[in-house]
Amino acid sequence: MNVWQAAANLIRQSRSGALATVARVRGSTPVPAGTKMLVGAEGRLIGSVGGGCVEADVIEAGLRAQAEHRPALLTHHLNADLAGDLGLSCGGTVDIFVEPLMADEAYVRVLEIVATAESGLVRTATEWGDGPVKTFEPVALGRGASGGGAAATLTRDGRFMEERLMPAPRVFVFGAGHVGTAIARAAEAAGFRVIVIDDRSEYADPARFSEGTHATVASWKSA
Questions:
Q1: Strand partners, 173
Q2: Same domain, yes or no: 118 and 48
Q3: What is the average pLDDT value for the chain, to the nearest integer?
Q4: What span, in angstroms and rounded, lies between the C-alpha atoms of 170 and 159?
């Protein structure tokens, strides 16, 4: 389950939460723009925005956003001395947008649509007046385009965070034995879309794999 769907599920279950997104980076940073972390009522649930004190601050901001129903845009300057002291290997600047999960039907639907979309543009207002403002616009990609995840940035005026979704590159694993299943797990953890192919139905059983891996029964010649 990806972080978008997990966020939508929290709202559907009437649970509180916040979604943190690395909205912009300058210089060397622990994680790229677009990286997400889901924060629940008791702290981090899914994902990471780099660890150390940055992540601790983001979790605190997530808890505050849940309580106040108001988003926040955080900026952290990871100079070399600070990065070394905190166990971070980078010294750039990172902007992180923290949004409370709101029980707004239009907002939840965008989360659910993005959870299954391979490409498109997500725009989120960084300041909310009468409620959350998040939209999704499908965008056609050229043949073979891939990048994986969502590359995020802030608009020049800082009023919106824009995330351009790109499909993750695919990995085909032929054979669903113990080696194939281990490769599939590793590839999925690395962010690939994984397709496992085996001509034995008991091996190419979707129940043997996580939701992020597609298992199909076929011979390698016909696949």
A1: 196
A2: yes
A3: 87
A4: 34
